[in-house]
Amino acid sequence: MRFSIHCDSFRVIAVGALLVSLVAGSPYTNADGGPEDHSFELPGIDDSVVKLTRRSASPVNVIFLVGTECPLVKIYASRVSKTVQEINRSHPKHSPAVRLIGLCSTVQDSIDDLQAFADDQQIEFTLAKDFDGSVGKRLGATRTSEVLVLDQDLAIRYQGRVDDEYEPGVSRTKVTRHDLRQAIDEILAGRPVSVPVTKPVGCLIGYATEGPVTTELTYTRDIAPILDRQCNECHRRGDIGPFALTDYAEVVGWGPMMVEVIDEQRMPPWHADPKFGTFVNARHMPDSEKQMVRDWVDGGMPYGDLTDLQKETSPASLAIADDGSEWQFSREPDLIVSMSDHSFEVPADQSVDYQYYVVDPGFKEDTWVVGTEVQPGNRSVVHHCIVFIRPPDDANFRGVGWLGAYVPGQRGAEFPEGYARRIPAGSKLVFQMHYTPTGTKQTDQTRIGLLLGKEENVTHEIITLTAINSEFEIPPNAQDHAVRASIRRLPERGELLAIAPHMHLRGKSFRVFAEPIMSSPDSHASDNPSSSEILLSVPHYDFNWQHVYAFADPLPLSSVDKIWFEATFDNSSSNPFNPDPAAAVFWGDQTDEEMAIGFFEVSIPRQPIAQRTRTVKAKSDSPQLNDEERRRAKQFAEQYIHRWDANHDGKLVSEELPKSIARFGMDQLDRNRNGVLETDEIERLYQQHLKKPASR
């Protein structure tokens, strides 16, 4: 017996095929051209029997395809149930006007699995188990979370998705078409369904099929090690992957799905172009391993010899306890800080804005951190978390204050010997939380663990610098709008350790360049890709995956004049993430606004050579400004101050700026380090912008 079942992670939903053609020969009709009889009688949970016949049918009957591990089923189960309940309340004369049945045709889900699913998801509608898959096949169903709407004669009037919120790899910010509700309303009103077929999304139903074994590859010898290297960081019990790939019985079910997401380059989740840079945390899957997975799945997915299976596929240092409480350090953390003294409640099926928590751990003196790990309290809902250092206003502190981060599949980090990050005395920590719902209400209380070191042992201080552009405007319907920013105040003896790009829903691509120091004193760095080295290229930026790209070999900065990036944005209707193509888009904290930021992890030697920082080239090295350009710079500075100056005192402090600029841009804007932005500082920055060649 060979099983085939496909399913998707929450952010990587597979493309559904158009199921039914409204032409002669459709499975909706029998050989005589009349409505096909879609009645059935199946076992349900709690030893019940679920029966649907023309005699027992309601005016409208909704069949919701269920798979207990499909993330979209968990999202849509409560949504479909609420829709049916609301419609029934609005049609009190019928009892009920709409009947809802959850049909499970996946071969790997048992009655016990359905019962546990009903309990966990608080399911209130009927669940039926289609053991041999005959009912699902007769209905033409292919994916879990698919819905079929049948009339009282059990003729299929609608088949496809619940609504348009999700597509493969896409989660829209709002629903623009409620397909299921629209179909039900039209049937109850006696009208034809205006859109009778849509593409379903979700998990491909695992129907049992017969097939011979035609490959010598085996799970135990060949496939399990690949899954351990490429998948099991997330797809294991207790982690954010919606199903585990650590057991053969599960892997066989997901085999074809693995091929699909590998071929579409959606898994493993990694967005850096392999032609540029070598990264220690890369999830790039070699072509040879991709082909082995394809051949094994196509060849029948044989198990192999048990003695070939490694007893411990994951290193002990990476093992996670069932409750997720194990730390990934070589020793227990010296300090553990929670995001709050109470948990955050994640709603069942609603999108959640970024949450911010400010915590005062009580740092009485400068503290040196040699290892960090952000540990979610509930890995199933924490998509990512970033923890920042917020130093006191009078602290001698450079950089944005990045302390640590969690994204699925990335673990705790211990710095190399002699490397550490400084937390100034009196600093607070800021937790930035991004949550994803799972279909039921959940709670989370994320925390960070710190390994502390002694100052006398620190040879290199790690800081985070930012390149930021907050003064852009993305025109409506612009498909490829470029925004640039740079850093030129680089530590002369420093090394670049890692890069983290950040944009929002309209982010399209992100490239980072290193501009070399020009040999000629008359040369001027011009943000020219032809004269720069590409350090990182992310051709298909995905807001849902906030990667930190850590170099395998740190880049010495002694010969680098500046680091700059070019980010492109897609504000057109062809971007499925786009909340509103007709809107002009500016910098802002919310996801329907935009950001253009590059975070750069840099190490600076502390001894024996003191930190030295190059400054921007002297005026003689760059073009001079004319009177009109100086006037424009002054006008821009005045407008910038006026835009945010809440107390009208002619200057800006952090509290008056948007949170994102205060956190990420203050280091670049506040040139005299007095904690206040004044007109002359903004004016000088704009003058430097004007001095750059027009090709910028």
Automatic annotation (TrEMBL):
Superkingdom classification of source: Bacteria
Keyword presence, Transferase: no
InterPro entries hit by this protein: Cu2_ascorb_mOase-like_C, Cu2_ascorb_mOase_N_sf, EF-hand-dom_pair, EF_Hand_1_Ca_BS, EF_hand_dom, PHM/PNGase_F_dom_sf, PRX-like1, Thioredoxin-like_sf
EF-hand domain sequence ranges: 657-692
The keyword DNA-binding appears for this protein: no
Keywords recorded for this protein, A-Z: Disulfide bond, Signal
Signal sequence segment: 1-31
SUPFAM superfamilies: EF-hand, PHM/PNGase F, Thioredoxin-like
Gene3D superfamilies reported for this sequence: 2.60.120.230, Copper type II, ascorbate-dependent monooxygenase, N-terminal domain, EF-hand, Glutaredoxin
The protein's name: Redoxin domain-containing protein
